[in-house]
Amino acid sequence: MKQPRYLATLVRKEKKHVEYEAVIGLETHVQLKTRSKMFGTSSAEYQSAEPNTLVDAVSMALPGTLPVVNQTAVEYAMMIGMAINCNIARITKFDRKNYTYPDLMKGYQITQMDEPICYEGYVDLPIEDSIRVRINRVHMEEDVARLIHVEGPQGGTVHSLVDINRAGTPLMEVVTEPDMHTSEQVEAYINNLQHIIRYLGVGTANMEEGSFRCDANISVREKGSTELTTKVEVKNMNRVRAVVRAVEYEIERQIACYESGERIIQETRGWDDGKGVTNSQRSKEEANDYRYFPEPDIPPLIISEDWIENTQAKMPELPIPRKNRFQEEWGLSEYDAELLTVLRSTADYFEEVCSGKKAESAEAKQAFAKATANWLNGEMARLMNDDEIVNMADTKVSPAALATLVEKFRKRELNNNSAKQVFEIMYSKGTAPETIIEDLGLGVVSGADSLGPIVDEVIANNEKAVNDYLGGKEVALKSLMGQVMKATRGQADPVQATDMIKDKLASR
């Protein structure tokens, strides 16, 4: 088993060899992709809006306003809970978390303290050393406003601006148990959770834009120990790679502290991505007094069995089960199935292309699926990447049109070069493949009547290559094939042409 980079054997002054392991838990905030805010009426689509234009009375905490729970946000939180194997609470409530900060318009945040909507779940990480990460809870809350810090000419913050647009955006926090021990496991967990959220369509899970924010609680102990030591919380990581680097640095820092006899204090540290270090922000030796109490303006939320069942019915097939099914049902390799299920839209497109083959034999069905996967993971992916298109449904190639092209290619009605030419026109113009083939005269030249005379002519006009081949030089066959392809403008069936050349020369 591969050891983590930072799990090293260190030597103390008494020459005792000690191995350390990290203990890591994550707290992940996920913005939910609803049209309106968690408790107010203004739009939650703040990313491209002008500052302070998506504001309502509830967001501003104006006197006399009453929050109303966003039903869609509740259902999205339930869907995420279901996807990560959580129990769904039948009764849940909201609480006020009281603290004073410039980005908190109310002076308190509406959240869930002791009765979260989802609890006691787990995620199995699809990595070499399979590990189950237990989910402690999933709770709902509202996001805060956004602070924009303005720096002076000599550096340092001169003043800060407040953009209220983000305030009140539906937010969900997923809290794990401290079950991870390496940065590789942390990365796998984050990628898996992002994948699930995007598949469900409940959020973008984009760390760079702030719709997915992750804090890591990290401690270090001697390997083999079950004791939980002092933990440190690390914040300010805006991409997956930053989380990985921050975790690795903090583990190494804590090990060095233990080795030098320095005491680890419970604190919050910020990640400096430019310098690649964590810096102390504030001590957490004393518990913060947030003075939680039940939100008086929102009654307890009753989640009925019917509501749970209806929400369950909206759940799509999740990425890992879908990947496994693609391998079993369609005979795809793990590599192809992985690529096709990265995005739900791609997986949906693939199945629509192959939908007409479900009733065929397993062999025919799987051969068609493999050919389709090659086109989607090859030419389609290349052209979409060039055009910066994410969703295959946004291309001009319909699933039915691609199915036709794949079938013609498999039946050798088009050779590889011609098929690629047809596909590029389909992609750029949306033209049906049959029309393109007819307009350009791209049908495959095959059969004894059409291809035979051309092969005869090539053999007659290339005496040296023929003699070389008869003399045992297999490479000469490629030269003869090149001449056949040239004579047919690349439209000869290569398999038939090769067989014809061999058969005709075998009689000499």
Major β-sheet annotation:
10 strands, mixed
Question: What share of residues is helical?
Answer: 25-40%
Oligomer: single chain
The total strand number stands at: 17
Uncertain runs are: 7-15
| Strand portion | 15-25%
Averaged pLDDT: 90
Radius of gyration: 31 Å
Tally of contiguous helical segments: 15
Q: What is the end-to-end distance?
A: 60 Å
State the shape: elongated
Secondary-structure class: alpha+beta
How many domains make up the coordinates? 3
Descriptive notes:
The structure is a single chain. This protein is an alpha+beta fold and 508 residues long. It has three domains: 200 residues, no CATH class; 115 residues, no CATH class; 60 residues, Arc Repressor Mutant, subunit A (Orthogonal Bundle), CATH 1.10.10. The protein has 15 helices and 17 strands. The strands form four sheets. Strands 1, 2, 3, 7, 8, 11, 12, 13, 14 and 15 form a ten-stranded mixed beta sheet that branches. Strands 6-5-16 form a three-stranded antiparallel beta sheet, with no helix packed on it. Helix 12 packs across helix 15. It starts with 8 loop residues before the first strand and ends with a helix.
